[in-house]
Amino acid sequence: MNENYGAEYASLYAEHWWWMSRESMIVDIIRRLNMPVPTTVLDVGCGDAVAFPALSQFGKVVGIEIDRSLVSEGNPYAKDIHHEPLGDPVYRGKQFGLITALDVIEHIEDDRQAVADMVHMLLPGGMLVVTVPAFMSLWDKHDVINHHFRRYTSREVLDLLSPHGDVLQVGYLFHSLYFLKRLVKLINVFRPGSVVQHAVPAGFVNRFMRRVCVQEYRWCHRLSVPFGSSVVGVLRRRAVFGEI
Q1: Is residue 187 assigned to a domain?
Q2: Element spanning 61, H or E
Q3: How many domains does the chain have?
Q4: By the 8 A CB rule, do 78 and 97 touch?
Q5: CA distance readout (Å), 43 to 81, 104, 114, 143
Q6: Domain containing 92: what range?
Q7: In the prediction, which pLDDT does 244 show?
Q8: What angle do CA 16, 81, 158 make, to 5 degrees?
Q9: What is the pTM of this model?
Q10: Confidence (pLDDT) at 226
Q11: Residue 244 lies in a domain
Q12: Looking at the domain assignment, is residue 35 inside a domain?
């Protein structure tokens, strides 16, 4: 992640309509899984433990964040954040009922190995919830700033998850933003500067955009809308280890 962008991430998560909307969606998706709670929760790519308060309603949360600079001094959750990468021997034997990787695996070159490493840390019957940016056709300067390797279709997320267990859900989020992202990309092609996509807008705009995105999710989450600016995938590890 770009250093300047990384420094802003915690405040963006708390204040920007996109992150606030995504958190609402993810919490609803996890609730609908009807998992036994409390459980053990691992948030991969947790940054400054920004999602810990929301995820803590499902159980004790720990995180992985390999970029130590993203964890602020005095963070009360710092002792629960590991800095070794996925697959490190330090995680051997650790298992969780729920693992989240929210806009994380697009930052990892070997995304298939990353998913395998996370599944190996799931308890039998445990859930993996991932989100990723959608469609390479939406690739823009924002992806470069974020050090993304790729964007995904829902089919590619299904192919990524399906070898490892039962895929309970794959679909698009932020349907309306698909068109806005295409417009922003077009503008950025034909102007010398670029549209900043992560600045927190004026208060009324921020509130309006959050309301629109959350309401759209409530209306559309049961539908198979074939486009969006993000993809969500949910995997359940099979109860018998040998079946994976």
Answers
A1: yes
A2: strand 59-64
A3: 1
A4: no
A5: 9, 10, 13, 22
A6: 3-237
A7: 43
A8: 65
A9: 0.94
A10: 97
A11: no
A12: yes
119, 244 Cβ separation under 8 angstroms: yes
pLDDT at 184: 86
Q: Which amino acid appears at position 128 of this protein?
A: L
CATH classification at residue 167: 3.40.50.150
DSSP for 107-153? Answer: G-S-HHHHHHHHHHTEEEEEEEEEEEEB-GGG--HHHHHTT-S--B-
Tokens of 102: 């929210």
Identify the pLDDT of residue 194. 62
**Residue 220, number of CB atoms within 10 A of its CB:** 16
Burial level of 230, CB count in 10 A (0-12/13-18/19+)? buried
Helix runs in 32-63, H state only: 52-55
Please report the pLDDT score of residue 124 as a whole number. Answer: 96
Mean pLDDT by 10 residues, the chain (244 residues): 64 94 98 96 97 98 96 94 98 97 98 98 98 96 90 98 98 97 85 69 95 97 96 92 48
Q: Is residue 71 part of a domain?
A: yes
